[in-house]
Each structure stands twice: as structure tokens, then as C-alpha cells.
Design brief:
The complex is a heterodimer of chains A (416) and B (244). Chain A is built from 14 helices and 12 strands. Chain A has 416 residues and is an alpha+beta fold. In chain A, helix 10 packs parallel to helix 13. By secondary structure, chain B is of the alpha/beta class. Chain B has one domain: 3-Layer(aba) Sandwich (Rossmann fold). Chain B has 7 helices and 10 strands. In chain B, strands 6-7-8-3-9-10 form a 6-stranded mixed beta sheet, with helices on both faces. Chain B has a 4-stranded antiparallel beta sheet with strand order 2-1-4-5, covered by helices on one side. In chain B, strand 1 and strand 2 form a beta hairpin. The chains are: A alpha+beta (416), B alpha/beta (244). The complex binds adenosine-5'-diphosphate and magnesium ion.
Chain lengths: 416, 244
Amino acid sequence: MRRLLYEITESIRIALTQIFANKLRSMLTALGVIIGIVAVTLMGTAIRGIDAGLENSMSMLGNDILYVQKWPWGGVEDWWNYANRPNIRAEDAEPLNRIIEATPNSELLLAVPVVARGAVVKANDNRLGNVFTVGSNADYGQLSNVDYVEGRLFNEAEANAGRPVCVLGFDVAEALFPGRSAMGEDVLINSQRYHVIGILAKQGSFLGLFSFDNQAIIPLVAFKKNFGTRRGAELRIKIRDKNRVTEAREELQGAMRRVRGQLPGERDNFSINEQQAFKAQLDPLKAGIALVGLFITGLSLFVGAIGIMNITFVSVKERTREIGTRKALGARRRTILLQFLIESVSICVIGGALGMGVAYALFYGIHLQMPALPVRFSSDLVVLSMALSVAVGILSGFIPAWQASKLDPVEALRYE
Amino acid sequence: MIAPTVSGAPRQVRPVGPLVIDIDGVTKLYRMGTETIHALRGVALKIHRNEYLAIMGPSGSGKSTLMNMLGCLDTPSAGRYHFNGKDVSAMEDDELAAIRNQEIGFVFQTFNLLPRSNALHNVELPLIYAGLAPHERRERARQALVNVGLAERMMHKPNELSGGQRQRVAIARALVNTPSIILADEPTGNLDSRTGEEIMQLFEHLYAAGNTIIVVTHEEDIARHARRVVRLRDGLIESDQTAT
Ligand SMILES: Nc1ncnc2c1ncn2[C@@H]1O[C@H](COP(=O)(O)OP(=O)(O)O)[C@@H](O)[C@H]1O
Ligand SMILES: [Mg+2]
């Protein structure tokens, strides 16, 4: 056992000497592995990043929310069937909440009406073109836990009276009142005056695409006064247990049909959306990335493995006399096998480490350029890359190493 | 035709110690396509501890083949070989490797040092395969290099050493495992005559210290150092003379 340990340390020593003595050759050989590891790391990170970003963004939206809307998320082919649906009305929230209250052990907690559109927001000389303006009632705060830098959401009295008050997203407040607090100031939303009573904490963006900090929240009644009632609304329903989404959906579907006065046998004239469905929308994208990534990884590792096998054959040939000498001095077959295996594995591991270095540099560059993009460099990717490198090293080194171990010592010593 | 003589009766060979090598009826065939080459045709030889023996003969007479056999690098086609009383003619590769590691020290014509390793590490090599701990093998390798007069050159790579010094490193490497025999195949073949003479002086020294030495050579000057000369011709022992 101890002997094996000494043989392995000796082999590592030889391998490193050998690799550093032939730096260029080793580097070129390792290129395939380097590219393969960069590809696998990029792929893993991209997929992981999408998942992480999604998870993050979803918890920002509140991941225990169902959306009642006119359109389903994701594409539909028979769009005309949906276009003819009556709009969802904000007023539907009230009867829906009554049904929820009357249902024993309801899976649903609360329905909140939400209307939204982009609007111009101005203060003094500052103007923002397209602020996501939300109209809702005082229950809006219960949908998700959002921190406030200052202030609060409007209360029930303010909401019912349609008071001209607003809560601003972090970026909106910053842009309109640079260097000072927006609290207590007045802003013009779609040319109507609102008093700022709250400023939201910075939240980030949904997958780096849609910023949650570029919004303004006003009472629903005020929204209608300002923008009219023509546009449809949506209902957001908080559920009791996010692990019982299916049950909650079924209950919500029944309740909504009652609210909308639908007859039995009639098709739903509304859609119930959930974030899980949105997640599924990204699955083909992830699968695509994985496919391309696996293809590139597989191809470059294969090419790399062939190169390493070749270089190990060359190495065995070059050092035939050395092998003979070692055998004369008492090296067993196992010793020689191990020596060349460790050499090919070392090349791969060094290549893998370089590949990860390159990938890390790439991520860092991307992160500096686009901080919002959710890229993550995780430790299990390091483990995976190392395992891959070792596997490629063993697979590609085995045949030449086996050949070396079987050399006849007399022949090897006679080799010119 | 001179009748081959075998050590032992009737001519008395002075046994200097216990029997180390005992071969009898050893043949070696090489098949080259349809042709069969008889490199050895039935050789019998006994070598005792602390003998100093030269194997001589013209080129192609089978010296190297015999040498490889004695060194357990190769196994005979027929015949038996006992080394320190153990039958090695039917041993597996790894068993032979263990015997080479423990019992035999090789000195090659071309030195066969590892070019990228310094003298000390070259000498350590057999001890690594023997499974010795690092500090112990370093100490023994150092001592072996001191014994061949290379105390000052331990950290030098082979290409920083002269031919004679390289062969001394090789001899230190052969000695470091305290083997039963030292086998040298044309040890002075790549050296000028003066350096060759120095190496032979070193062998003289090792012999005096109790080592068993077998030298293969085609030079009479080198063979003269040995106490016993075995001459080969066409794969047979032609003569076996012990100096008086
Ligand atoms: N590996 C081999 N294959 C074929 N023939 C060999 C081989 N080794 C040696 N021989 C032949 O065996 C004979 C003896 O060779 P060798 O022992 O090398 O002689 P020497 O060392 O005395 O010059 C020669 O005829 C040589 O050609
Ligand atoms: Mg020869």
C-alpha cells in the first residue's frame, strides 16, 4: 500500500516534469480538453443562471400567486377564441372574495384586482417615458413582501376614495428626484398630480429584462379616473399553500365561473395563469442550450481524447528505453501503467483547470458588462469539470499505457 | 574444438561463498519468421557469492542473451535457472521484477540514466520500487553516491556529468539495493580507456568489499580484471578459467 503511494507520487513527479519539459506540445494537446471544459461550464452556468434568475424573479412576484387573465401565457393558435372573451373586470374581485370567504377550508386566501399600463411620469423638469403604472387596492401589499425605503402603501380609506397618492419604484424616485428624497413631493402621472407617500426598495429585474424598479402604484379608483375604464384588468389570487397549486386552480376555476355567470358545459372565458407555466416556457430554451453545449463539449473532448491518446503513444515510443530501464530496476507492469495514465490524466486535469480559468474570466467579463444577467459559477461545475477531465485522461491514456506496461524489458532496452 | 568446461569437477573452482546462480541446460531460441536462431544451446554455469567473473566471446556468441537471462530480464526457452535457490525459470513478470529490484544491480553500456532527474533521484529509483520511505531512500542514495566518489555531484543532471561520472551514478544505482549480484554489460564500452580503467578500479573496490560482479566484455584488457573468465562461442561455453 505504502509502495503504491510512493509509485504514485513518483509518477506525478515524472508526469509534471514531462509536461513542463514539453510545454507547447502539452498545451496543444490539452486544447481539446480546454475547449470542452469551457463549453460544459458555459452551458451549465447558462442553464443554472436561467433557473436561478427565474427563481429569483418569481419570488419577487410572489410564487404563491395565481393570475386570472383574458389570455393564457404562452402562445395560442386559435387566438380569435380568446379575443372574443369579455375583459376581466376589476370589480370581479369583490364577488370572488365573497365566494372565497364562504368556502370552508378554501385553498385561496385573497383576490386582488390589478390594472396596469405604461405612462409618462414627470416631476419638475425630469420626465420618464414609460413607467409601468399599476392601479390596485389596499390589499396589493399582501401579494408579496416588498420592502420600502420610506413610507408605505395607500390604506383602504385612501384607496376607496381614489386619493391622488402614489408609491414609486426605486429607479423612478431616483431619476425624478436625483440626490434627494421623493417623499412628500408631487409627481405628474399621465399629466395628473399625485402625492408620493412611499418609495420601494430596489428589487432588480425579471431575468434582466423587465425592471421592477421602474414602476408606480396608485389606487385603482384613481387609475380609472386617469386612464379610463375601457382596458381590462387582471385578478391576482394569493393561495394558501404553494405546494397545492393544482387544487387551488380547480377551486379558482369553479369560483370564477360562478362570478362570470358561466353555464355548465360552456368553455371558460378566462385563463388562470401561474408562474410554473412560465417556467415551462423556458424549458425548450434550456434544452436547446444543453443540446448545443453537449454537442460542443462532446466533440471537443473527443478530439481532445484522440490527441492525448496520440501524444501518449508518442511519449511511450520516445521513452521506450526509459521504460526498459525502469523495468530492469524493478518497476512492475502496474507501475508503468500508472505512470503513463497519470501523465495523460495530468494533461487533462491541467487542461480542465485552464478551461475553467477561461470560463471564469468570461463570466467575470460578462458580469462586469451586464451585472443584471444572472450568471453563476458554482462549485459543483468545478467538480463536474474535474471529473470529466480525469475520465478523458483515463480513457485516452489507457491503451498506450497498457501497451507500455506490456513491453518486454529486453526489447525495450535494445530500442534505439 | 575445445570441450566446454563447467565450473565444479573435475577442475576445482575455489568457491568463495554460497551458490547464487545455478543454471543448467539453458537454451534460448528466437523465431525470425520461418528461421529459428539458437542464441544459447545448452549452457550450464554456477556462480558463487563474491566471485568476479567476465563473460567474453565474439559478437553474436550469445553474451547479451545470457546476461539478460542471468539478470532475470528474460526467461530461458528450456533448462532451469535457480537464483539463490529459487527457481526463476517459470516466474511471472512481476515476480521477476521483484527479483531484479531486490537481488540484481544492472550497469549498462549506455548508462541508461533518466535524463531529467538528478543523480540523487536516479539512484533513488530502485528504492522507490522497493517501497522505501522518502527520507530513508534519500539517505541510502546519498551514501551510495558517496561510495562511488560523487559526493559533490548529487544534484547534477546526467547532461552535466562526464561519461565516467555518469557510469558511477549508474553503479551507485546498481548498488543501492545491496543486490546479490552486479551485472555489467560492456560497462566501459562508451568510455575512453583511461576513464574505463577508473571504472574497473571501482569494480575492483566493490569486489574487495564482498560484492559479486559479472562483467560482459569483448576486451581482453577489461576481462583481465576478473578472477574468472567464461568464453562463449555460438551459444555454448567454450572455456571457463579461474585465475590462480
Ligand atoms: N531479440 C532477438 N531476436 C532475434 N534474434 C536475436 C535477438 N536477440 C539476439 N538475437 C540473436 O541471438 C544471437 C546472440 O545474440 P547476443 O546475445 O546479442 O550476442 P552478443 O551479445 O554476444 O553479441 C545473435 O545471432 C542475435 O542475432
Ligand atoms: Mg551484446
